[in-house]
Amino acid sequence: MTPNDTSPEKAAFRRLMATYLQVFFERVFTEVDSRGKLVDSEFIGVLVDHLEQVLNGSSRRLIVNLPPRHLKSLLISVAFVAFALGQDPRRRIAVISHSQSLARDLAAKTKRVMESEWYREVFPRTRLERESVTDLETSEGGGRYAASFDTGVTGRGFDIIIVDDPISANNVMSEVERTKNVDIFNGSIASRLDYPERGTIIVVAQRLHEDDLSGSLLRKGGWTHLSLPLVAEFEEVYKYG
């Protein structure tokens, strides 16, 4: 798809990408991963449904637990962020991971998407003003900030906070590290919403310990929990769309 492509079919496809996260995600996948083809699995539709509830304001606190290699970071920390900024370039979004290298990698993929020709055609209002990989800013004052649990987000406020992979597999078995991880979230991350009653927090991670961040938050209550284990522990039916 090129900027000069004005055929009715391409125009319709652009409208679909601007409206439906799942269609947009399929295009994002081809942008950032040319090695393979996206398999249309039903769990992606379930994930997208929960993320659309975030965008329409019916879900404010969401925990997503999936096994590794199930596209959760690409969908949530890359595609969802670019889609949310495309629909409203004033949104301020933070994506916080356990390491700065992971945070930077996810940010670089988002930047690549938002700088692409097709993205600018789909979302003509959204333009990057400041293009630092870890601190993308749109011309309307929104943007995407990448940080780690070590660097923190002091002095900033956000509309959406995404915590993606909050603790490494090497540290999760340490009670000291788990406690530190939870304390950082409670003390310096969860408080960074500009409007706590309207702001959104998404925690996305594989489950590594019953006392990891997901477990701690679930015990407190108040969170929507989407848990999709690699092997189902019991039969469940998911309705979406």
What structural keywords apply?
241 residues, 8 helices, alpha/beta, eight-stranded mixed beta sheet, globular, 41% helix
Query: Could you describe the largest sheet, including whether it forms a barrel?
Result: 8 strands, mixed
Strand arrangement within the widest β-sheet reads 3-4-5-2-6-7-1-8
Q: What is the C-alpha radius of gyration, as a whole number of Å?
A: 18 Å
Spans of 5+ residues with little confidence (pLDDT < 50)?
none
> How confident overall, as mean pLDDT?
91
- End-to-end C-alpha gap: 27 Å
Strand/helix succession? HHHEHEHHEEEEHEHE
Helical coverage, percent range: 40-55%
- Please indicate the percent range of residues in DSSP E strands (runs of 2 or more): 15-25%
The number of E-state strands comes to 8
The rough form would be described as globular
Judged by helices, strands and strand pairing, the structural class is alpha/beta
Tally the helices: 8
Could you walk me through the main structural features you see in this protein, from its secondary elements to its overall organization?
By secondary structure, the chain is α/β, with parallel strands linked by helices. Helix content is 41%, strand content 17%. The protein has eight helices and eight strands; from the N terminus they run H-H-H-E-H-E-H-H-E-E-E-E-H-E-H-E. Strands 3-4-5-2-6-7-1-8 form an eight-stranded mixed beta sheet, covered by helices on one side. The two termini are 27 Å apart.
